[in-house]
Amino acid sequence: MRRSGVVAAVTVAAPAPLPKASPADTLRILLLAAGPLFAKGLIRRRPAMVRFLARTDAEARGIALLARLRAKYGEGPLRLAFPLRGAALILSPRHLRRLLAETPEPFAADTPEKRASLAHFQPRGVLVSSGAERAERRRFNEAVLETGCPVHSLAPALIRLCEGEAASLLARGGFAWPEFQAAWFRMVRAAIFGPAARDDEALTAMLHALRGDANWAFLKPRRRRLRRTFLAAVGEKLRQAPADSLAGLARARATPEAAPEDQIAHWLFAFDAAAIGAFRTLAMLALHPDAAARARRDRPFVRAAMLDTLRLWPTTPAVLRRSERDTDWEGRTLPAGTGLLVHLPFFHRDRGRIPYADRFTPAAWLDGRAEAWPFVPFSAGPAGCPAANLVLLVAGAWIEAAIRRHVVLLPPGTGLDPEALPATFDHFALRLSLRPLPRSRREPALLGAVNPLSPDGDFDG
């Protein structure tokens, strides 16, 4: 209403800017939270660094730091004081869900850091692709890995492979990580390329070497000759693979744009993370005899045990994204080009919000608790791991084979407290032993029946 020619002024408050960490807090984040994730090796674990982090409990301090910073700065996203490039840390479950749901647009998965790392051995992998190429490579992966199916069409053959390799390993009466990993990769090579590739350890050795280089991302020159040799070997095995193998399915569904050799290189890489998860799950069942007893008679519980082990120690602990355009965060703007970091151990081990943060709790994956919180051991959304169901099927087959006729035992002095599990698990130093289970307590093999649980979404793709 106007009075005597005077117009009332309306003041519109400018939106509050997103919080920004001080330079000192940014340095703390880099050293105490992000630093350990990168130091232990995001592409291939460094045993010495894993051992150091386990002894110093550094990762637990990083998780505690992020909880304090959330209390100090709010739910974020928390901008970091980087001089040359915008970066922000995701601190809110709501924001994490949005980031994963809105990938790859506007939040691209092919960040510069990821491109620099994976270019060492899979320069045309789906994780470092964009636009039409990414869409075609994602389609290819989902078709071959049968992303939407709880049980892969090759499940009977895959389970037979798992049972055979597991039987040879279990006959030793115990095994450490190197023996488990070697047996696991014999199964992986046969599953992907057919029985003729089972003993081709040279192929896996080339990949391990290239993955070690990939840990250094920009900082180490690419061994292009070794990469060509490795991808050529993958391509030759792809052409020779029998139809009833994963590579046989890949050959039938491949297009030039799909770059199948690079996608298979990623499967080989990702199956190593699956091996770590399966080995650690066996250790958790050894530490929790009641859970092991339930796993023998309850196949969905086996899968839940694997998922909770991956919650406790995510094999893909950092999710990286890049905003392709300006994005609105509840009235506040992050500019295009901002790099976004998700520290998954913080979300999976948030003691202030998760009562069982540091305890092995497979039941949470069966009673709805896990769905109420953004646990993403296999990422989620359009870039969720396309092999999640396949990995859980294969890992479950190994776990079931081990516990069906044996009690898995931990050596004394592991330092694993069931009430306060450590933030870093040094599986490299662990040896599991086996004790035969009385016949009256043995269960028949039931894996291979329909697995009724579908995963939430390590392999962030």
Summarize the structure.
The chain has helices spanning 23-39, 47-56, 58-73, 93-101, 112-118, 131-145, 155-170, 177-193, 201-214, 224-240, 246-253, 260-287, 289-297, 299-312, 344-348, 388-404, and strands at residues 78-79, 87-89, 107-108, 174-176, 318-323, 327-329, 332-334, 339-343, 406-409, 431-436. It has 461 residues and is an alpha+beta fold. The protein has a single domain (23-441), classed as Orthogonal Bundle (Cytochrome p450), CATH 1.10.630.10.
CATH topology: Cytochrome p450
SS-based structural class? alpha+beta
SS strand fraction: 5-15%
Measured distance between first and last alpha carbons: 57 Å
Which CATH first-tier class would you pick? Mainly Alpha
What kind of sheet is the major sheet? 5 strands, mixed
CATH homologous superfamily designation: Cytochrome P450
Strand order of the largest sheet: 1-2-8-5-3
Helix content: 40-55%
Number of helices: 16
Kindly report the average pLDDT value: 92
Topology as a string of helices (H) and strands (E) = HHHEEHEHHHEHHHHHHHEEEEHHEE
- Rg on CA atoms, Å: 23 Å
Tell how many strands the DSSP assignment holds. 10
Low-confidence stretches: 446-461
Shape: globular
**Count of domains:** 1
If classified by CATH, what would the architecture be?
Orthogonal Bundle
Any descriptors?
disordered C terminus; 5-stranded mixed sheet; globular; Cytochrome p450; 16 helices; single chain; 461 residues; 3-stranded antiparallel sheet; 48% helix; alpha+beta
